[in-house]
Request: fold
Amino acid sequence: MTHLPLALACIWLGMVVAISIEAPLKFRAPGITLPLGLGIGRLVFRALNAAEIVLATTTAVTFALAPRPAPATVLLVALAVTLAVQVAALRPRLEARAAVIIAGETPPRSSAHLVYIALEGLKVLMLVAFAIALLITG
Reply:
């Protein structure tokens, strides 16, 4: 039964890595302005976070039905907390800041974007560790 949580975690990891690569690249595309790129980014990250919530929930449910090694359990809880912080605390701030920029104004400086990026990197590492923990114990 550990195969399904492992597969879901790998899908989740692939999505996070793909969007993390796409996010800065869109600003290099010809004709993409900062407001346009931010508008696209808002839609993409809203969709990514929704998919992540589904994947995290499904992973947790399938994980609960399987043998639960302690390291993997800790990692899954840490992943859920990280995602919750991103979705509930950081993304609303980032969306509000993007709305100000899209409206042509200059918002005050904020470290929310850097914190979000750091949590994305941490999430990638935790997903890799979670998958390894499942492989070792599975």
Notes: The chain has a mean pLDDT of 94. The chain is about 80% helix and 0% strand.
